[in-house]
């Protein structure tokens, strides 16, 4: 299983891999916001956490459709389906590798982009923490969409449409946790805990559903 | 160990691809599946590999390991696609499959250098898989059969894109596998030069002719 994790990491870093595309997209989206909104520093600081979260959500969706499709195209998926290892473990490891290659860079890039949005240290820290807790959920939800669309040649858009509604709670609780951290009366922990619960919930449900979809998609 | 299929039939969409196929293969025996294009050879092999559900019938492994759920867990499947990543080197590809698949009980896979040597391409394992020619890629996909031990080999057109020398080399590999008590099921148009084979002739949508299989 470690072999699978390392292989997927290698593949995402090598030419044609998706690791850099997500983080570059994230940077592009967030970097153009100040130009569009104008030089109102207070406004930027206020919408900053929400913009970072929306950017991270959209960037996580990029490249999700290739999660299983690339394996299917070269026949690797057939061999993975045949093994004694339960398929849901394989799916879980693939998700973990995908998150490490595409989700983690978003978390690391967030402070720099927070500066673009004139956010203070507390807001940047809270955004990083919520992204760290919340983005794995997007990957696990996305895995289900990717598995459903695995045999469609242009499944990318479909995956986004399938995944986005399910990812909305992640966005809501992620952003509300950040605002709770910077605005005094609201407590920070409850939304963060719910965010963590969403991630754990989908870490279990996602691989099971994705594995079931992959079994039925094989032809 | 004995692989027994009874009354297998499979469907793709609405169409019945084949009907009532039965065979039994003991250790060291091979089954060659022949027939015209579209007669259901690949479908049969995918059913045997557990990748497609059979419409009817059963596939059993007698005297196999007790904890096994489906014979596919003890099988190698070499399909039309090579299951190797173009971006990774040959060695990375092979060592991934060696680690990921592991060995079935009762044998151990060869190490990488030995497997690459056995398919006649020593010294190019450091190249990305995508750099190789179609024939070289196919040979490296065969090396995958050697690095992880599986008693059952399911091969779909294994020698497509191979030259005559590689055909012979491949027949050698298959024979060595049979000598060690393995089971081979291969769909092919070309004669593989194998001994001890049964032949299954697929005739397409009308089902299978006559006696289901005859000794060649």
From TrEMBL, chain A:
Protein name, per record: Heme exporter protein B
Record organism: Ensifer adhaerens
């Amino acid at each position: 299983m470690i072999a699978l994790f390392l292989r997927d990491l290698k593949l995402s870093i090598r030419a044609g891999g998706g690791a850099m595309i997500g983080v570059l997209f994230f940077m592009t989206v967030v970097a153009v916001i100040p130009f569009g909104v104008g030089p109102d520093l207070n406004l930027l600081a206020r919408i900053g956490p929400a913009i970072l979260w929306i950017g991270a959500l959209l960037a996580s969706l990029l490249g999700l459709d290739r999660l299983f499709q690339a394996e299917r195209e070269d026949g690797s998926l057939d061999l993975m389906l045949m093994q004694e290892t339960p398929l849901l473990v394989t799916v879980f490891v693939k998700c973990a590798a995908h998150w490490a290659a595409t989700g983690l860079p978003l978390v690391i890039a967030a402070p720099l982009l927070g500066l673009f949005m004139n956010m203070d240290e507390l807001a940047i820290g809270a955004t990083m923490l919520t992204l760290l807790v919340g983005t794995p959920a997007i990957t696990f939800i996305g895995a289900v969409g990717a598995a459903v669309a695995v045999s469609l040649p242009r499944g990318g858009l479909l995956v986004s449409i399938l995944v986005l509604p399910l990812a909305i709670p992640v966005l809501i609780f992620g952003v509300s946790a950040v605002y709770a951290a910077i605005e005094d009366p609201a407590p920070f922990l409850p939304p963060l805990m719910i965010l963590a619960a969403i991630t754990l919930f989908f870490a279990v449900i996602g691989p099971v559903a994705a594995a079931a979809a992959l079994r039925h998609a094989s032809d | 160990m004995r692989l027994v299929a009874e009354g297998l039939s499979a469907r793709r969409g609405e169409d019945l691809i084949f009907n009532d196929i039965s065979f039994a293969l003991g250790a060291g025996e091979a089954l060659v599946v022949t027939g015209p294009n579209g007669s259901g050879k690949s479908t049969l092999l995918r059913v045997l590999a557990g990748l497609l559900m059979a419409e009817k019938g059963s596939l059993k492994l007698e005297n196999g390991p007790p904890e096994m759920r489906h014979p596919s867990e003890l099988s190698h499947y070499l399909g039309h696609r090579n299951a190797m990543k173009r971006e990774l080197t040959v060695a990375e590809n092979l060592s991934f499959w060696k680690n990921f698949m592991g060995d079935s009980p009762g044998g151990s896979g060869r190490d990488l250098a030995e497997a690459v040597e056995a398919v006649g391409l020593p010294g190019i394992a450091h190249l990305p898989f995508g750099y190789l020619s179609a024939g070289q890629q196919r040979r490296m996909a065969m090396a995958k059969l050697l690095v992880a031990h599986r008693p059952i080999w399911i091969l779909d057109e294994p020698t497509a894109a191979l030259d005559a020398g590689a055909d012979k080399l491949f027949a050698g590999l298959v024979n060595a596998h049979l000598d060690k008590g393995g089971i081979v099921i291969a769909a092919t148009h070309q004669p593989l030069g194998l001994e001890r084979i049964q032949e299954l002739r697929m005739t397409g949508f009308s089902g299978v002719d006559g006696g289901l299989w005859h000794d060649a």
